[in-house]
Amino acid sequence: MKYYMTNLKSFFGIIAVVGSSLTSFAGDCSSLSGEYKIAKENGDFATITEAVSNLKCGGVSGSVRFLIESGKYTDKIDLTNISGVSAQNTITFESLSGAESDVILASSSQDQSFTVGITNTSYVNFSNLTLQNNSGLTGNVVRIDGNVSAVKFKNVIFDGSEKQVTGANNAVIYSTSNGTKRGLSLEDCTVNNGSVGVYKGGLEVADEATSISGTTFFNQYEGGLVINGEKSPVLSYNVLSSVSNYKGFKAITLNSVNENLIVSNNIVNTINGGYGLAMNNCEGLISGYGNITNNSFYLGGQGTLYGLYLSGKTDNQVLNFNRVKLTPTTVNSANQAFYMNIGSGQNINLTNNIFFDLGTGGYTILGNTYKDYFNQLPPQSNQALSVSANGIMIEKVMPAN
Predict the structure, then answer these.
(1) Distance between CA atoms of 217 and 157, rounded to whole angstroms?
(2) What is the DSSP string of 11-70?
(3) Which pLDDT tens digit goes with each residue over 251-277?
(4) How far from 318 is each of 284, 285, 291, CA to CA, in Å?
(5) pTM
(6) What are 59-99's pLDDT values in tens digits?
(7) Beta-strand pair 387-389/392-397
(8) In what helix (H) or strand (E) does residue 8 lie, and over which residues does it extend?
(9) Is-contact 398 367, C-beta < 8 A?
(10) In this structure, how many other beta carbons lie within 10 angstroms of the beta carbon of residue 354?
(11) How far is 164 from 152, CA to CA, in rounded Å?
């Protein structure tokens, strides 16, 4: 019996050694769950890099919340294939003080490709932070790649490059066309500089349910918002303001954005020409039209001005209670408060909009019918017409003396 017990202890000792070796091989770190403090002194993690390394090593077994001590950090967040995340097991990064200006996370001078990278990882939240990548000529503040769902930013300041650059790789927030993205959310954020504020490239597989609300876009060079290949996004209560002199600047660009699109209560200001809202191949549903409602577009300058610009197979859209004001510094007959090319669908319903061109005269359009009457509208630059079509009054508005 003594011999048997001795050998049994030896057997379990071998198992313990093997188990220990397997744990070390897996990364020698445990999964995270709960609240952790990131601070140089008396913190659970001394740096953001250390916390992210533990996430990548052990994953999560419950919801995780990182509270970051005030200060500036040159740590790169690269969240790739984090295990254990779910709608219940979320990951949150936020400032300990609750003020977005108290914690600044910036790219290092050695690696400016992005400051925050999220690849094949979902259910990540950022709140009350400042994220920067503004020291170089190129790079993103945030880059989202692969299959990603439910990434949310709330009360976050994004600072991109102030250089006059173009292209998705210089957008402040770049969501690639690789994989499918669902539920990207920006709420009450500020997006500064960059080629584009938010660039979503979902043409390979349609993205879904992007929500951008209460967010200010300032000083983008090429465009404020670009969304490609998307189902049912909601863009509401945003302000897009630009002093860019880029020819063809577009405040909001929607390409192949389909189904229940909502663009409402946004304000666009540009002073050097460009487009307010450009929609291409955007098809709503017969059972649920897209809604472009209660937006204000103010465009000025010497370049060609388009307030609402519809092209391609754009169809099944209601444009209601929008205000477009063009204030060109020189008369330009090409300017259009509303433009729709002949290739667009016929279910484009204009109701209760005000279109005004200070340079050439415009039209106040009043009505309460959803009947499509686009083909009965006079050309906007025509100075002679005041007509009624299908119960909708179209009144000439003369420029101020």
Answers:
(1) 10
(2) HHHHHHHHHHHHHHHHTS-PPEEEEEEE-SSS-SBSSHHHHHHHHHHH-EEEEEEEEEPS
(3) 999 999 999 999 999 999 999 989 999
(4) 9, 11, 5
(5) 0.85
(6) 999 999 999 999 999 988 999 999 999 999 999 999 999 99
(7) antiparallel
(8) helix 2-26
(9) no
(10) 17
(11) 28
